[in-house]
Amino acid sequence: MEFTKILGKDIEEWKQEYPILEKIIATEPVFWQNPRQQTFREAIKKITLHEGDIKAAEERLQRFSPYIAKVFPETQSASGIIESPTVHIAAMQAELEKMYKLTLPGSLLLKCDSHLAISGSIKARGGIYEVLKHAEDLAMAHRLLTVNDDYAILDSEKFRSFFSGYSIQVGSTGNLGLSIGMIGAQLGFRVTVHMSADAKQWKKDLLRCKGVTVIEYGSDYSKAVEAGRKQSQADPTSYFVDDENSTNLFLGYAVAAARLKSQLDEMNVVVDDEHPLFVYLPCGVGGGPGGVAFGLKMLYRDNVHCFFAEPTHSPCMLIGLLTGQHDRVSVQDFGIDNRTDADGLAVGRASAFVGKTVENLLSGVYTVDDAELYVLLSMLANTERMYLEPSALAGVYGPVQLFRSNAGQQYLAEHKLSGKMANAAHIVWATGGSMVPEEIMQQYYHEGLRRLKQRTS
Ligand SMILES: *Cc1c(COP(=O)(O)O)cnc(C)c1O
Asked: Is the CB of 321 under 6 A from ligand 1?
């Protein structure tokens, strides 16, 4: 190993330049404050996406809402808008204080993307949005649809037969494929999902049931994406949903911000100079958390503090941001194995597009052990009767680490927040879980209980 160089430097040189790498490479949990963070006014100057882009995405989802309500009846009560509840989790907050022996001032809330309609994860935002946009682009180019139409007409033999002349492909660790497959197949597209080795069997089975072609790879996410991109490029009727580079996915996620703001307003959760908002987002390749963080920064600017959460074995965004090398480095380059039970986060190389977009906006990144995810899973189930998949618990560890770590304390002090924390709101983004089959969820839960007992005995 000592002879391999990463971008011309050996591991020892990298560690000297970035001392925190010692712990990251040893897969110990860390809390990293982003030294490149700037004020919103400074940071936004370099970003080419604008408020108008998010607005356009919001309006597109609105246009599709009559169609969504018609073909996915579970969205009827929300008039075809796919959105999740935001809830206080005071019992969990109290349990966290007990478990980690600290006080968590402010209020703790859960954003329940675990319960988003159609695919039960945050991917029901970006993934579905991108397929809808592609369908609209195609139908409009062929003069089959205008913005003034009632999009419920898409639920017809005419449109399904039209879309069946086109295919959509995507590389995924599971949830993105599930999302793209569900909406793509419903519209009539031929869909191929390239699944990494981490993908759970039930996700593949469910997609095959819907008529989606699932190709399985023994390798990790980056390889599945590469293979999908290649196959798609060879077919002129094929569209590739590029999780590593897609602005459409990103904007689909960003729409979450304005919706969350309405919910917070309704709940009388104030966000201003005296009431800071902290948001903790589980991160895989970066599009989901990046899009949501971008949207939130556009609305709340310097009053929102966004942190990404990654497994200790897959800290790809952390390594990309820390070194400033983005997708030119992978966790495997540094000898980290990218093996985690948090399948939604099992990504070894981050999106450079997302990294560069958020590098001056993001407050920091922290890592969390798989064991911790299981413990938190069972704690949340016991206190709030909320059942999430392991990836989705990564956010819950954020407030604990913010108050417990020196880096977290330093962040609060530097931003003159220490005196305002009693007024703070902490939103943990629960990114998935409601589609997990009952018996698999029971296994997760019992794994968490077992570890919980070890700790408290
Ligand atoms: C995909 C996913 C994430 C992270 O989203 P990225 O866009 O890959 O960063 C987080 N949690 C779950 C459950 C996911 O499926």
From this structure: no
